[in-house]
Write a structure and sequence with these properties.
This protein is an alpha+beta fold. The chain is 31% helix and 27% strand. The chain has a single domain, classed as 2-Layer Sandwich (Ribosomal Protein L30, Chain: A), CATH 3.30.1390. Strands 2-1-3 form a three-stranded antiparallel beta sheet, with no helix packed on it.
Length: 59
């Protein structure tokens, strides 16, 4: 399965609770924190919701 690296590049301050929850569910806590996750439809849906806050790279 393909892996992707998700990096938090903007703060969640001022965002609605559902966006904050999605960022937390991805495992991101601080700016410049990253996680390597399997590329699945569920993860792609979460990324689509917070695409204005994260950077996504193929690994």
């Amino acid at each position: 399965m393909a892996k992707i690296r998700i990096t938090l590049v903007k703060s969640t301050i001022g965002q609605v609770a559902s966006v904050k929850g999605t960022v937390a569910a991805l495992g991101l806590k601080k700016i410049r924190s990253f996680k390597e996750l399997d590329d699945s439809p569920a993860v792609q849906g979460m990324i689509a919701k917070v695409k204005h806050l994260v950077k996504v790279e193929n690994v």
